[in-house]
Request: fold
Amino acid sequence: MRLTWTVAYGYVAPGMNRSDVPSGRSRLDLLDPLEVSKLGGLELVTEGVVEGFLSGLHRSPRRGFSVEFAEHRMYQPGDELRYVDWKILGRNDRLYVKQFEEETNLRAVIVFDTSRSMAWTGSPATVLPKLAYAQRLIAALALVLIRQRDATGLITFDDDVRSVTPPRARLSHWHQLLGTLARLEAGQGTAAEPALRRVVGQLRRRGLVVFVSDLLLDRVLALKALRFLRHRGHQVLVLHIMDPAEVSLGGPNEARFEDPESRSAVVLRPRDWAGAYRDTVRNVVSEWRLACRRHGIAYHRVTTDTPYGIVLREALTSPSRSA
Amino acid sequence: MIGFLHPWMLAGLVAAAIPILLHLLARREPPTVVFPAVRYLVTTTQEHQRRLKLRNWLLLLLRTMLVATLVMAAAGPTVPLTGVPGHSPSALVLIIDNSPSSGTVTGGSPQLAQLVAAGREVLARSTPEDALWLIAADGVPRRGDRVALTALLRDLTVSPRRLELGTAITLAGEVLESEPRPGEIVLLTDLQASALSPADPVAPLLVGRPDKAPPPNTGIGRLETGTQPWSSDGGRISVVLVGDSGASVPLAARLGERPARQALARVGGTVALSLPGVPAGWWTLTAGLDPDEFRLDDQRVAAVRVAPVARVSWDSTSRFVAAACDVLAANGRIVRGNEVTVGRLGPRASVVQPPEDPAELGALNRALAARGAGWSYGNLSTEVTFSDSGAVVGRQRVTRRYSLQSTSSGRTGLLASVNGTPWIVRGGNVILLGSRLDPAWTDLPISAGFMPFVDVLLNRLARGEAALEQGAPGDPVPLPDMVTDVRRGDREWRVEGGGLFQPPEVGVYYLRSGRDTIGAISVNPDPRESRLARASDTQARQLWKGARMVALQDAADASFSSASRGDLRSPLLWLALIAGLAEIGLASGWRRRP
Reply:
């Protein structure tokens, strides 16, 4: 998604007008993640992001991922007609739309890849490391879910499962999650399958699994585990975290590119290989997307320079999530 | 064989190694970049590795080729082309053999006319970018453009000078050595066998020669006048005919404008003729044959000095001199008298030996000074040396000698020398010998040349004559010290005594010292020119490696063919352009989509 930087430190996404961006008070969910990270600690920043995100949702005609009726409000241009309460219209000749709340008994588990590759950024001065970006994104996502009274848990892994935080719906639980996230350090390799299998123990009934990873792992095994979760009836959302430098190859004239996890290396000239590499990444993303779609798994590729609000909106309104 | 206009530019070929060096250097120690998505790179490179490797090699090849072709183009390479009109800028040396034999008339015209016609056709093929030289029998390379050299050819006449073909080819090679353009030597000659000499052509050699056999020829190879001076009773001459004709031919010989004596002569034989007496003086002897196709050798000249024999006073104090004088007197070459005194200082012309007793040397020197001889005896040297080869005494061993010191300016009167110092000199009418004519002093008295030496000494040198030389046109002839000018007919050359004189043409040249004629040079063509027989192509090729032999009329077509070299600069520049474009296309195309 191509974004435009505004004077008010906000991104304007395609389909959004500049008027959508609050003029007096900047919406943190639409700010550059690196700028956001400079505004305060994890908790403060995350709350700001979520506030901004939710306020945007309030004004958005696309609100509607909840399934339980909450209240009425006056119809606003752009609201979907399917939410118009026709009975009130018949009685009072006024247009009201129905608003819904999410079910409170949804249990969500966020599976977070904390391998060494996640600690990398191609441009430390301008882009957050994938791990830091994902920490804030997960914190925001957990807060949104908990505010919807969804029990939210967290499993972190690298080459093994590192921590398991069972799902809870209390707000204090979110602070516990924050503590877990804040203590995270990048691990070694990546082995997603054990962590994904641990989800089964955390979700006794149908729930939501959010898999946050750079997907530099064994795709077959990971897909197998995700498919397993999907077969258990869980909604599965994959957030593929990528650094912009992983999308477009750059670097010195010739370099020895070394994998921080496996230490395998390739010597090449980025200028010669940029085009082919871009195609390879496009194919990899395409393969992930197709494989996920085939099994009803929601997939989103997220680059670490994307504002959190954009990612949250896409993640929480994805077909899999709203199904 | 490939040639280069600017071969020094080839040093730039080392620059062709730059892409390779860069390639090799660039491969070393690339910086390490931590990059998590190496698996994507691996996938990418696995799919394109072979193609990339091929592309890298192609790029390396193209870049190396680009540099190499540019350097090669700068060096101006040329290659021989056959059957292709036009030629690259070339350096051509045209050698026209206008030696005496080129005056032979064949097919109704002199051979030289055919050579010149062929030469003009060769020059007509030249372009303004060509460097052209003309070498004729005088051996002087003349550079000029087509017009100038064509004019020189037009004015070219048969030279009395002989042309050694090997020498001319070597000279042409030296001319071409400093020329960056591809060179070629075109030799147009009658290919006279006697004119062939070895040469190692440094440039392609094209030889154009007549395809018809030369006519048979008879010429006078040698004309001997015997011992001079002749007496007023006349003298005998001997004539040797040379050539390749077997027929007898009439021979006529005359002194000055006196009636000729005639005889029949054959090639290889010697004809002796007695000529009647004439008054004393210098006479030009002319021996001639009936004209044939080669006129130049049909006549030969010689100088004859007619004078009464010397009246000599000698005694027995010098045993060898006395013996020689007795023999000469017995043969009528001298008579007793007091015209010339031998061995001591006499009242008139004298031949003086150093005294055996050194105590007498002072008195002799005083007497010489009183006579105004201009020379005196100096210190005695017992170093064993040899006389310098000369017309008077030749090379003789000298074991004792007095140094001869000139009391006047210059070396006037030097007749013979030892190690460059005077050994026999003349001062006024006195001849001083540095050594006594005794075997204890020199080997001259016991050598075969002693009798002729004494004859010449008494009859000519003591009487003021210097030399009777022989030579060929253009050959340098050493002049005696006393010569002030050389005269032939109405022409006169001021010369410096002791120097060299190059007689320009055939004839008798009289050497003069003031108003006195003291010698003569008889100048005749080289007798080898009389043998017109032509060398075979095989013989020429053996002597001149790689020479191409063609008929005269084909020389123009064949010329510039070895130098008719294709200029490779344009193709190379095109190749460089294509290589450059290919490199750009390959490099940028790959970056867009490998």
